[in-house]
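User: Can you write out an input/output pair for a complex, sequences first and structure second?

Assistant: Here is one pair. Inputs:
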Amino acid sequence: MDPEALYRRYGPMVYRRCRRLLGNEEAAVDAMHDVFVKVITRKDVLTADAPSSLLYRMATNTCLNQLRSKRRRPEVLDGELILRIAVTGDAEDRTAARSMLSRLFRKEQESTQTIAVMHLLDGMTHQEVADAVGMSVSGVRKRLRVLRARLKTMESEDSAEHASHRRTS
Amino acid sequence: MSSSSPEKAGASNPDRVPDLLLEQVHLGELPERQADEVRTRLDVEPGGPARLAALATGDKALFDRVPPAQFIAEVQRRQHLAAVQQQQQQQQQQSTPKWGWLAGPMVLATAVLLFVARPDGPSPSHVEPALGPATTMTERAKGHVSTATTGAVDLWLFRKRGDAVERMAQGAEARSGQRVQLGYHAHRTGYVAIVSMDGRGAVTRHLPVEGAAALKVSAGPGVMLDHSYELDDAPAYERFILVSSTAPFSVTDIERAAKALSGRKDGRSATLSLPSGAMQTSFLLTKVASGRHDR
């Protein structure tokens, strides 16, 4: 598929994905171009029969990297995106999600970030995430399970540190 | 995170069809059975069918905004830039070229007066880039880089930190006392002007340094302006605006428009009122309190 045909077919999807994550039309157009620069150098995308999942994932990764850099629109990471993620679920989940995602963006590998965003932000099922990222359902569950365990560890550490501060203050 | 995480835990609306599935139905890339399931879900989702229908409208809107020919040109430009950066980084690993920072620093808010006082200064467009050929302007770019572009002309900013030089990102934080240098890269023949405005409302002209008319430029190597600037203590922001056009235009009009904008609350983001056919792009630096100066 030549670049123009690729753009005509998938450009709007990539643009919409970027706009949703970045919350800004101009930034979304910019990110969309970045995605296609990567796409065009990847033959597996150009030759895939139905590359929408791969493109969607690449768009997600590209935007998360931009958000993580905290240079393009830092308020998005700390504000809109996290809040959109954090309004999910019940109160317990909201707190956990906010904490978890802020840590994810700092430390976790891209694929794990993508999985978390697709599941927590996009509301995709484990099966749908698995289809999109090319992993097994059990693999997706495992990633999320590991994240939750890691989060609990961090929360425990935070609590211990907080208690220590209270004792010393 | 709740330990009893349901399958769709975290979804703002668990019954809402995820965007990816919606897109795949729109693209016809789901197996028929799965597509039918998604359509059934859309039928019962409030506004579901409208979401699907809106995709076609959105497709057209994007192509109106970014026509395929423009898209291809931009992708090719970025590929070229990436290749140049890679090449330059390889060269940089083999040597440690020195930053040829040009003339001494100026306080940005007073730059116009000082420029005018230079009777023999070469036209910036005729000055070789401080880092050598145009491509070397990107060689020290590290991490996230950013180019503001009108499509015809790119605008770049560089900052000196100690002995290192970094290409600045859109929205980067900057402090009073830091030195920045502007560069531009014309992709085709046209006319260019660069002005800046700060959070105090001061407007400074950067290109051309003299005269009432925009500078004529031709496609070719990138160009660094022949002065660096020392940021003053204006609060909130420094915003550099590049205006380009295929036709001559008055820089005086651009300065006037910038002054009008600088008095507005949305001065850091609103667009200039431009002559017909002219395009603009801006590069915003966010001013932060100066704990220390990175010179």
